[in-house]
Amino acid sequence: MMGPWTGAKVVVPTKFIVGELDLTLKLPGAEAYINNGGFKKDVPLLEDIVVLKGVGHFLNEEKPEEVTKQIHDFFNQF
């Protein structure tokens, strides 16, 4: 299914926000990919990684004010 996108890079300024309790973060190899350069290689304009403490997968429902602030601050830098 992803064949046409294999090797493609995300080439826009990016901020990645994830909850520390998100099960997708706990998939084998996910944290290493994010923290050890693999993510930055595929997303070369990655500017920031934010791990929200005590939050699971539904960030915008669990911490709406914090997520809004993170997004607002990111957009305001441009």
From TrEMBL:
InterPro entries: AB_hydrolase_fold, Epox_hydrolase-like
Source taxon at top rank: Eukaryota
Keyword Flavoprotein attached: no
GO MF term (any one): hydrolase activity
UniProt keyword list: Hydrolase
Family: Belongs to the AB hydrolase superfamily. Epoxide hydrolase family.
Designated name of the protein: Epoxide hydrolase
Organism: Linum tenue
Lineage: Eukaryota, Viridiplantae, Streptophyta, Embryophyta, Tracheophyta
